[in-house]
Write a structure and sequence with these properties.
This protein has 299 residues and is of the alpha+beta class. 28% of the residues lie in helices and 21% in strands. The protein has seven helices and ten strands. Strands 1, 2, 3, 4, 5, 6, 7, 8, 9 and 10 form a ten-stranded mixed sheet that branches. The longest helix is centred in the first third of the chain and has 23 residues. The protein is globular. The protein starts with a helix and ends with a strand.
Length: 299
């Protein structure tokens, strides 16, 4: 009996010791951990390559490449940049008109308007002289004078030049008519500008006339007698106002306009005379197409 109690006590003691040991033992894996340099026996594992990764280059703007294509086979920009470059790739909206829409003329015009335009064109063509529709008048052919040296071979009677009417039909040759057109476009119109709406009529006081210079007895035949001259005394503007050589030559803006006209005529015409040349030209400009070896004579 005493022996059994001793055995039982010993067993209980051992159990308590084992329990205490387990409680104090650390919670670690029962698998042995390999020590440095120790030999491990087991299944061989394939070697792993531990190459060092190359340094990633800095991000660069993506470019459209031939490999970037949409479902239709068209080249497209990478998706990462499509949103960023949308404003650049898309053209700005066009506001200008193209094709038929560029013209301000209506596409469909009344027939009456077209007929009037054609009629006007035909009228200008019929009234054109010297091969220029800007010079309107009639051909009169040869003109014979009473005095020796007067007359012209191919004369024209001019009524309008570059849209500006002449106060009377002026007889002259085509050289003089074309010189008059050049002066009207490059001298008279720029000098007047928009004053009074522009010039509507030129006051002509002399053109072809078989006479001597300044109507002086014994003088040479005037260029008027050869159809090469025209005398201009003033201008009527579209608002009804006038500019005259006699009254406005020395008056403010009108005087400056007349002096500019006089100056620009020199070179276009061979002879240019005005109020300061002599007493015979105080009230008009004398323009003629005589040619001198020394150049134009302008006073």
């Amino acid at each position: 009996m005493i022996r059994r109690l001793a055995i039982t006590g010993t067993f209980i003691g051992l159990t308590l010791v084992a329990g205490l040991a387990m409680a104090e033992a650390p919670e670690r894996s029962l698998r042995p951990v390999a020590r440095p340099g120790s030999l491990q026996i087991g299944i061989a594992q394939p070697a792993r390559h531990t190459t060092t990764k190359a340094k990633r280059p800095e991000a660069r703007p993506e470019k459209i490449t031939s490999s970037s294509r949409d479902e239709r086979g068209h080249r497209t920009a990478p998706k990462s940049r499509q949103n960023k470059t949308l404003a650049v790739l898309q053209p700005e909206p066009r506001t200008e008109r193209r094709g038929l829409f560029r013209s301000l003329r209506p596409l469909l015009r009344p027939r009456a308007v077209g007929k009037r335009a054609v009629a006007r064109k035909n009228e200008l063509a019929r009234g054109a002289v010297c091969g220029d529709v800007a010079i309107q008048g009639a051909e009169i052919g040869a003109v014979r004078g009473k005095l020796n040296g007067c007359g012209l071979i191919k004369g024209v009677k001019v009524r309008e030049v570059s849209g500006v009417a002449l106060s009377q039909n002026a007889v002259m040759d085509c050289v003089t008519a074309k010189a008059l057109k050049s002066w009207i476009n490059t001298g008279m119109k720029p000098a007047v500008g928009n004053r009074g709406g522009g010039v509507s009529r030129i006051r002509v006081v002399a053109h072809y006339a078989c006479r001597t210079r300044n109507n002086q007895r014994g003088a040479k035949i005037s260029e008027h007698g050869r159809g090469r001259a025209i005398d201009i005394a003033g201008f009527t503007l579209r608002d009804g106002s006038t500019i005259t050589v006699l009254t406005d030559w020395n008056k403010g803006d009108k005087g400056q306009t007349l002096r500019h006209m006089h100056k620009t005529a020199c070179g276009t015409f061979g002879t240019v005379l005005g109020p300061e040349s002599n007493r015979f030209h105080q009230d008009h400009f004398h323009f003629d197409t005589a040619r001198y070896r020394s150049g134009s004579y302008c006073r």
